[in-house]
């Protein structure tokens, strides 16, 4: 008998799977998804994930074989953690806090991760900030039988450029595929809203959906506020728009809540905004669409346009979307520095896998395997779950990635534009002014807020605390802070990354 021990997710192609596996489609969502996972394991075994579309992480117990089987989806949209105890037991789950409560877990800081975190601003790779606690990485399954742990990889991003198609052909394939996916994202009896920024990704998802209400965050500082673009898009598409204005006081007050619910530190300043946005949206819906995935799949970041110039040098420095502190600076500010702990080592195996591919494909692959899992999807999952909101991401789908994996890089970026084919597809349902709007990113006014003494008192206190003195050379980190407050605004990321670690550490090792 197969028992579900743990499951979080949403299976999109449930109707097809129910027909294939002989499952009653009238079951409730919880019952049918449970039945699908069990029956898929019985039918396809270790390769079951290749038949499922959606977002999922789960653990099954095979009573007959006395074997535990755990699996995480191809992109890591849902987290999964495991921990081997001194007594030889395996603890596992989708929440770190649940594992910490189990007998045999010993809470110890993995200080080595701090050195990586100061560069990347998120927790990359399989290790975590808790000694011995590991992440099951995307596209992998874990088995535990007779006290033996094995981890196997069932899916790897692969790139095989097809030069036979035109730009319009690729745009048609994207548009047709997304059109086929959208009806799966929710059932007819479910209602959803959609997060909407000024960008093409969320606008395209909205245009392809039957969602009637959009949700955006904004600020009183006009130069940082994209919400007027979102409202304009909603108006063009005939949808209702809701706007949540975020104040600096509210933003800073939210930081401890975010770091606690994130379970590991995250130096992405947009996570605080996202948390507030999730709470506001959860007040009037339980399901919300979001547009993650397209940037990494289809060449959405402006830095991707430098890929050819980077060439073979990529594997010496490119570790993903962020790299804010170099080794000499970390050596100065950290009390413990290990010259063998280098961010580039996290990406080393990926560069081995992509040997011979063009530079853009290499950059995309690093971001798909490291940045998406460690930052973007972690943020989406943790903050939405904490707020009681379920987020579904139509563009994060193996069928969408399949198109990107075959698309030559010239249709992803050129000298003038990023996401060329994707934008061309979006222009089928959006005005050109939206489909081809320059990428702005998720802008947060933190760089000016944190320099303001009205809002930065907790940052100052943390930077002068005994807690900070455990890890940092105080003169060095306060020199960075003082330089930032004095006008060196580029230092804000360094200040924020140190600060978020200290807030997280206080939540997990001081307060609790």
UniProtKB/TrEMBL annotation:
Coiled-coil portions: none
One Pfam match: Asn_synthase
GO CC annotation terms, alphabetical: cytosol
Site positions (Important for beta-aspartyl-AMP intermediate formation): 292
E.C. number: 6.3.5.4
Top-level lineage group: Bacteria
Annotated catalysed reactions: L-aspartate + L-glutamine + ATP + H2O = L-asparagine + L-glutamate + AMP + diphosphate + H(+)
Domain Glutamine amidotransferase type-2: 1-147
Record-level Gene Ontology MF annotations: asparagine synthase (glutamine-hydrolyzing) activity; ATP binding
GO biological process, one term: asparagine biosynthetic process
UniProt keyword terms in alphabetical order: Amino-acid biosynthesis, Asparagine biosynthesis, ATP-binding, Nucleotide-binding
Pathway in which the depicted protein is active: Amino-acid biosynthesis; L-asparagine biosynthesis; L-asparagine from L-aspartate (L-Gln route): step 1/1
Amino-acid biosynthesis among keywords: yes
Class of the enzyme per the UniProt entry, highest EC level: ligase
Transmembrane segments: none
Record keyword ATP-binding present: yes
SUPFAM superfamilies for this protein: Adenine nucleotide alpha hydrolases-like (SSF52402), N-terminal nucleophile aminohydrolases (Ntn hydrolases) (SSF56235)
Family the entry assigns: Belongs to the asparagine synthetase family.
UniProt protein name: asparagine synthase (glutamine-hydrolyzing)
Organism field: Hespellia stercorisuis DSM 15480
Organism classification: Bacteria, Bacillati, Bacillota, Clostridia, Lachnospirales
């Amino acid at each position: 008998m197969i028992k579900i021990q743990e499951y979080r997710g949403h299976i999109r192609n449930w109707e097809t799977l129910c027909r294939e596996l002989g499952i009653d489609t009238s079951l409730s969502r919880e019952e049918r998804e449970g039945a699908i996972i069990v029956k898929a394991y019985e039918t396809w075994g270790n390769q079951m994930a290749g038949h499922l579309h959606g977002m999922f992480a789960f653990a099954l117990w095979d009573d007959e074989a006395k074997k535990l089987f755990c699996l995480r989806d191809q992109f890591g949209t849902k987290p999964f953690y495991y921990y081997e105890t001194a007594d030889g037991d395996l603890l596992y789950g989708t929440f770190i806090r649940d594992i910490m409560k189990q007998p045999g877990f010993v809470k110890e800081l993995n200080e080595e991760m701090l050195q990586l975190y100061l560069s990347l601003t998120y927790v990359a790779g399989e290790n975590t900030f808790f000694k011995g606690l590991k992440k099951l990485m995307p596209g992998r399954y874990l088995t535990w039988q007779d006290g033996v742990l094995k981890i196997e990889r069932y899916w790897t991003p692969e790139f095989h450029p097809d030069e036979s198609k035109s730009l319009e052909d690729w745009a048609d394939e994207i548009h047709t595929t997304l059109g086929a996916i959208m009806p799966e994202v929710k059932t007819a009896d479910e209602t959803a809203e959609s997060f909407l920024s000024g960008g093409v990704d969320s606008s395209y998802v909205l245009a392809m959906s039957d969602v009637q209400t959009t949700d955006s965050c904004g600020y009183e500082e006009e130069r940082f506020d994209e919400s007027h673009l979102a409202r304009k898009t909603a108006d063009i598409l005939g949808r209702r728009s809701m706007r949540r204005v975020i104040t600096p006081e509210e933003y800073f007050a939210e930081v401890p809540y975010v770091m606690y619910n994130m379970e590991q530190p995250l130096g992405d300043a947009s996570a605080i905004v996202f948390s507030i946005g999730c709470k506001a949206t959860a007040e009037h819906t339980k399901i919300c669409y979001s547009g993650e995935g397209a940037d990494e799949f289809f060449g959405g970041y402006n830095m991707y346009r430098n890929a050819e110039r980077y060439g073979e040098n990529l594997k010496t420095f490119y570790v993903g979307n962020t790299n804010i502190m170099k080794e000499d600076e970390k050596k100065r500010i950290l009390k413990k520095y290990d010259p063998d702990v280098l961010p580039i080592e996290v990406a080393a195996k990926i560069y081995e896998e992509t040997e011979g591919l063009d530079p853009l494909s290499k950059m995309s692959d690093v971001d798909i395997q490291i940045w998406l899992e460690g930052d973007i999807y972690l943020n989406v999952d943790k903050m939405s779950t904490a707020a009681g909101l379920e987020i579904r991401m139509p563009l994060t789908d193996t069928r969408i990635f399949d198109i990107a994996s075959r698309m030559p890089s010239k249709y992803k970026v050129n000298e003038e534009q990023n996401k060329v084919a994707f934008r061309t597809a979006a222009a089928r349902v959006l005005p050109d002014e939206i489909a081809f709007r320059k990428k702005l990113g998720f802008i947060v006014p933190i760089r000016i807020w944190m320099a303001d003494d009205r809002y930065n008192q907790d940052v100052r206190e943390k930077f002068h605390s005994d807690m900070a003195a455990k890890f940092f050379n105080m003169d060095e980190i306060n020199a960075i802070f003082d330089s930032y407050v004095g006008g060196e605004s580029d230092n804000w990321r360094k200040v924020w990354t140190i600060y978020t670690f200290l807030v997280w550490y206080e939540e997990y090792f001081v307060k609790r």
